[in-house]
Fold these 2 entries.
Entry 1:
Amino acid sequence: MTMITTTTAEEREAILGAVREYAETELAPFSGERDEKHLFPRESLHRGGELGLGGIYVREENGGTGLSRVDTVAIFEELAKGDPAVASYISIHNMVAWIIDTYGDDAQQSRWLPELTAMDGFGSYCLTEPGAGSDAAAIATSAVRDGDEFVLTGVKQFISGAGEAAVYVVMARTGDAGSGARGVSAFLVPGDAEGLSFGALEKKMGWHAQPTRQVIFDGVRVPASAMLGDEGTGFAIAMSALNGGRLNIAACSLGGAQWALDRAVQYVHERVAFGEPLAEKQSILFAVADMRTELQAARLMVRDGAQAVDEKAPDATMRCAMAKRFATDAGFDVANRALQLHGGYGYLQDYGIEKVVRDLRVHQILEGTNEIMRLIVGREMLRPAGSASMRSVASEPVRSAS
């Protein structure tokens, strides 16, 4: 099945209807089992590739669906209603595909994009290291030139899809230690490269349906042609991908929280306490009203950030940071309150609410912690009058769990 790529109101609804059907048939029914058994859904992801979910905003000429970021965030919200953990991995995969579509040369695009857009193979994004989180410009993984090759040595931390990916977008230092962000370059490393290995599966609070491991580079050799873009531009490439990543993860928070809220509304209608349904109690009415209001406010902020990216607005980075911070905080809070409304039943795995709470908690950390989002917004607000309207994206620190 090929996803529609135009975005009239009617066609947009057709797109979301197809995604909703996929989420309801391929994700939601298996969400609990995948969480309990830590199963990575390879076959379901491949079927998502047939739908067009492997390259949602990759250009059509490169096999993607070429959709806008406004359409993209609506898609991720629907996916997350089926399973936030799987939806979040699809976001990371799409970041990798977009990076190659945007910065790759013809040979790199031809090599990797057909496989990635079809989700016959998966992508991983390697930025964070054990000693470089929010200060990602301090990465130490090195890429040393040796004739027509680069030799990569170092360790990446918290990498989603590690051990499953066909290709890793790796940020490594080609400049000296004092060169900061300007000394970082980006490389495409195949998943079967000699010297590439992986740490043990991390034991995580949530996101059990996607593997998270260290990625270890022990003298991994790649041809010089594996470099993405120019030498020294890797950090800027990494940061440019994070606007979309932040919006996607914010949308995943919306979808997971909306699912939890819908279940809470259903539950309070069914549950009787002190002789009347919970839904008749004013405190419950106020609670669900606040939850719905906060999600709608967050949804509008996410759409605003997506529109800023689509329009290449000069303040897009700030608007994406605001949306990410607000929506991931609101999403976790709403899901947590939905658990509270279920009482003791919300704490049971059978109801699925506790899984969503666990999955959404990490959204406040990855793609830049919410503290870093405040830093980005605060710097912009306090910049001297007359200075550039937005700080360089490459100058912003970030914490990435992907």
Entry 2:
Amino acid sequence: MNPRTTPAPTAVRRSALFLTATLSALSLTGCGLFGATGEDDTERGPNNYDMTVGLLLPDKDTARFEKFDYPLIRDRISSLTNKQGKVVYANAEGSTAKQSEQFQKLIADDADVILVDAVDAAAVAPDVKKAKEAGIPVIAYDRLAEGPIDAYVSHDNELVGQVQGRALVNALGENAEKSKVVMMNGAAADPNSALFKKGALSELSGKVDIVKAYDTHKWLPEVAAKNMRKALKEVGAGNLAAVYSANDGMAGAVIEVLGDAGLSDLPPVTGQDADLAAVQRVAAGTQYMTVYKSFLLEATGAADMAVAKVQDRSIQFDALARDRIDSRTRKDIPAMLVPVVALTKENIEDTVIEDGVYTAEDICTQPYAAACAEIGLAP
């Protein structure tokens, strides 16, 4: 995807439908329609359904990991392997040490492939190297891990930042140039953070006045809240025009601090992940936008790629990994980059509801019923 082009919601949905169709067609290879390219079919090959896929996710603060990513990957692996394949799942709960222990256990237990969403991209590199030495393929999921990974499945993360930054400039309108903006960036240890920031700055630099910018340790909302309180003391609540928040968890904390500061007319605040609470805030107008990234396409793509790798299906694998990306330790990594879209109150129904992520009933609970009615969202 061209990172300089922000697709319209319709275009993104068409891309998503195309990817879904591609993934569905390619998944037929799991039923033996294509032969394996390797010579040894005893352990790896088209009929190898009995496999163990290790899945390591980074935290429980980001709602999507437990609610969407894990069950979607688990169910897809089961479907692709005639229910013979299993997913061994572990969540690091924000700890690099805990994730390393979980990684080491998967290696010791001889997992067939490991999907890892790293807490810290650099810290996980030695574990990736050990897995490779043990003959276990490693696929970086959502965040680009360092080390000799075999593939990467995520979104165009620079585009995510561009979508956020562009939305903020549009929200500020003709007064953007004089507007004081605080940037609440993600964790410095997460390589995605640098890409989000780069994309956002490509839209914000020279167009707004960025008065404060913070990196947020481990993406923790409480850290974002603390930094927001510091920013308000220095900038003044009445002088703040907008807040760039890299994700929804931090956006919720920022909005709470702004409310506590007595701002009844909240400035625009961005987000990312389309968490349910964030979508409700968008409906209510307390959060300006969030970036919706299809969990289904990302998780399904990762599962398909993992199975293809175990079964030595290079044709399927190559078809899934049409993009290329560089990490600090490896160049030209095969990648699948899934489209993203800016979610605002105008397109809630056309995005997360249409894709079956949430229902109107999920969003329009009693505290948000009036806001939903105002934007024509009926449960």
